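Could you show me just one protein sequence together with its fold in token form as a worked example?
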Amino acid sequence: MRHANSEWVDKILYTALVVAFASVAKYVLGITLVLVATFIAVMLVFLLSLLVISQFSDKKFHKEYKLYLERMNGARFFCYNNRKSSIAFAQDIIVPALDPSVHVVFVEGSNVKNGPDSKYISKMLYGVKERKGFPYLLKIENCQVIDTSVNNQFYSIMIGSKPIGPLLDRINAFYNSTPLVSIA
């Protein structure tokens, strides 16, 4: 009989232990779920805040960019990069032959080196319509950026040790040309 009572006691203790474990597990699981849900909610609020801030920053930048284009209307830019084979030719031969009013822009990798206006020039370069390679010529007319690449002629003259006159003529012709107006 003692043995039967012992089995009942064991069963009752086992059941009590399972119930206690289940109760604790329920609270631990509940707390975990609450913590996970709170974390997700906080992250969502954080991400939404970033999106709102980013949207306002983009609008602010576009407004500043438009003002920059208005302020720099008529400006001309010669943009070259840090390609080892051509940097000396651009710096020592082409840049000194350019009109002093041309803004010379050096691009190192993806970084535009032109002081506080770098972000605006970077946007202009990002918007180049035909990516044929550096150097790029840019000009601002009627608050619009007009661009062209002189890559082929630049490297043809540099590699072939040809006179730079035709390249300079093309550069000056681009800067002095009036934009084509499309009639729709």
Q: What stands out?
A: Residues 1-71 form one domain. The chain has five helices and five strands.
